[in-house]
Write a structure and sequence with these properties.
The chain has a domain at about 120-255 and about 280-390: Alpha-Beta Complex (Spore Coat Polysaccharide Biosynthesis Protein SpsA, Chain A), CATH 3.90.550.10. The chain is built from 13 helices and 9 strands. The protein has helices spanning about 10-40, 40-65, 65-100, 135-140, 150-160, 175-190, 205-215, 235-240, 295-305, 315-325, 345-350, 370-380, 385-390, and strands spanning about 120-130, 160-170, 190-195, 220-225, 230, 250-255, 285-295, 330, 355. Helix 6 links the parallel strand 2 (about 160-170) and strand 3. Helix 4 (about 135-140) runs parallel beside helix 12 and helix 7 (about 205-215) crosses helix 9 (about 295-305). The radius of gyration is 30 Å and the shape is globular.
Amino acid sequence: MRGKAVSGKAILVLCLASFLAGSLITSRTWTSQSHNNNHPIVNHVTASNKLGEFDHKLRKLGEGKAEDIMGEVSKTHKAIQSLEKTISNLEMELAVSRMSSVGNGVTLQKPKSYSNHKLQKAFVVIGINTAFSSRKRRDSLRQTWMPTGEKLKKLEKEKGIVIRFVIGHSATTGGVLDKALDKEEAEHKDFLRLNHVEGYHQLSTKTRLYFSTAVSMWDAEFYVKVDDDVHLNLGMLATTLARYRSKPRVYIGCMKSGPVLSEKGVKYHEPEYWKFGEDGNKYFRHATGQIYGISKDLAAYISINSPILHRYANEDVSLGSWLIGLEVEHVDDRSMCCGTPPDCEWKAQAGNICVASFDWSCSGVCKSVEKMKYVHNSCGEGDSSIWKSDF
């Protein structure tokens, strides 16, 4: 750098020489490629070979049996379904990357499931909605259909089924209720704690937060919410969900359309009844709140748009409203809302084991603490069923 300075004229000549040399080499390369790609004989041979292969496949298919033809059609259909789901996943990831913010000053946070943070893979996450006062209900599930301890860990590892009791905290954080729950959690290790103040009139908020939190912790194919007074057959649930794993956006449960209650003081009163039209109108179709499940894309959608999703008085209506305007397949599966014995018992004896059982009159199993074991013995699929299930 400190040697004799090079004149500007010499630099100019050197640059021109380099440019000409580079152009000559590039031109020869392009000519060679163009000669190979555009040669009419080469193109004709390639096209002829492809047509010959296609004609051979058609003749082979035509000469085959009807079963072979149907098999090929079935494979093609499955391939198309798989492609649709892949496209849907890519669309969702693209939407996540684009939607870092929206108008009106609302910021949408990107869920961890679509970040570089590696999440635990799962087939389904089952969140059991519970309350501080429901310790006996939780124990009744632990003693019947819900595995505990090492079996719970084994279920996650071998079957990809995650089960957690979902609960927030009390209005006085760190109080007696929270301490009692901390002790129970240390004993069983089966809770998903939310940053949420518990309260009956906050169920829509809790549901929204459950899906957002679950998506940020597990990369699952499905996310299910169930109440703590409902009997569940895990093997049947997994088998049922597996039938829809090729679908990109699925909302599954017992679909209903109940009346919009405008009268104050009644149970399930809807303060925003006027939004649903005239008095006496019914809600749009939505899954009953005792149990429902949604696929991965829908849970991610809720997580992404959480700050601007409207909450109605009833959480099942709220979830239905979040999904009603989307391209979603609503699956009405009546095996998810069987009655308690003798209903589910008769069905089990006939080989139609129910996914979930409860009493409509109680919005769950009536006197569930006392009756859950009886329902389990009468309508349960057998404790070994989930381990034998192939999904």
